[in-house]
Every structure is written in structure tokens, then in C-alpha cells.
């Protein structure tokens, strides 16, 4: 809790994954992938409740082994390839509402961003309150700057994405950021099925070294390398 506001963290962990089967519980660095996010959420100073939303009994069993009890599985219609995360969040909030349990702030933590730490979560929540409860999304500086990106028109001609000259020093480029998927924060009573989480208003800027998105086996290898680097520091 922070400033008398109750905070719910939702960790979505669907069983189906085309790129990496059982991705959320695959072992990396000796732990199931989801454990990194669970540990970060548990270590947060402000999170009051952690809810794992999963349709998969094996994931539920793994999470129960981490000390979080899952007493319901996600409805199947919300566990499809085209299911929207915002609808999953609303389902979880409805579940608590039916038990007369209310929260003020909801934090979405995707297990595919395992390098996010508890201090990232807490700093993002503090930013949310600093800016009068405007929605927050974590971002990182882009590696490939859009000023150097081009599209090809119907005539086969290169066109710039940005209406800016690229004949400037790289250090003078305007900073651009990418939504990294690590932390989303919203006011509970403002969430609707039309809410676009990636369009949350306030940026919480994370150092690029914490940005990894696990979608392929190559991403897993990169994550293992980053874990090794962390262990050597």
C-alpha cells in the first residue's frame, strides 16, 4: 500500500506459446522464467496482492511452489492467441469485486520481461502518484534510431520515417523510446476494454540493460548471458 491506496499486481501467464512451448515456466538460470517476475513483485514495497492469471494447471502448480496460491484458472475464452491483456486484467478485477475486495492501483507485470527489478516497480508506482495518478508505462531508449529508418514507397523509392534531417551527429539525435513491456500502471476505476496499455501517458524510463523480451530461443540465450553478466558484477 502507498498513500492509503491498495495495489494489485497482475502477472499474465498463458499456457499456450507458439515460439517457446511452456515459455512461462521454462528453466533459465536454474529458475522457471515466471519466478523472476514473481520475486520482483514480492520484493516490492507497495504491492499488496499478486495475482497470476493462467489457464494452465502446470503453470499454476509451479506458481503454487513459489508460495503464491492460485485458486482459479483463467477462463478459456481469455487464453486464446487473440485474447487481449486488458480483458484479462478486467477479468481479474471482476473476480476480486465479486469477493468485495477492492484495489486502487493495478500493475501489470509480464513474465517475458524477467530483468525488471522490484525497484523498477516501486519507482514506477511513485511516478504514477507524482503525476496525479496518470497512467504509467515503462520505456527504454531505442538502439536503432528512427531517424535512420526508411520505408519503400510504391515506386521503389526510399522515404524517411521522420521529417528530420539525418545529417547530424548521432549524439545530437532526438531521444526516442520504446515501450518495453516491463511495467504498466493504471487506476483501477479507469480501466475499460478499450484501454490501450501501450498508450499510457507517463513514461518510466528504464536503463536499456534491463530490457529483454523473451519470445524466441535466441531471446532466452541472451537472457542467460545477461544473467551471467549480473552474477559477475
UniProtKB/TrEMBL annotation:
One Gene Ontology molecular-function label: nucleotidyltransferase activity
Pfam family, one: CTP_transf_3
Transmembrane portions of the chain: none
Gene3D superfamilies the record matches: Spore Coat Polysaccharide Biosynthesis Protein SpsA, Chain A (3.90.550.10)
Domain of life: Bacteria
InterPro entries for the chain: CMP-NeuNAc_synthase, Cytidylyl_trans, Nucleotide-diphossugar_trans
CDD domains xrefs: CMP-NeuAc_Synthase (cd02513)
Keyword annotations of the record: Nucleotidyltransferase, Transferase
Identification of the protein by name: Acylneuraminate cytidylyltransferase family protein
Lineage of the organism: Bacteria, Bacillati, Bacillota, Bacilli, Bacillales
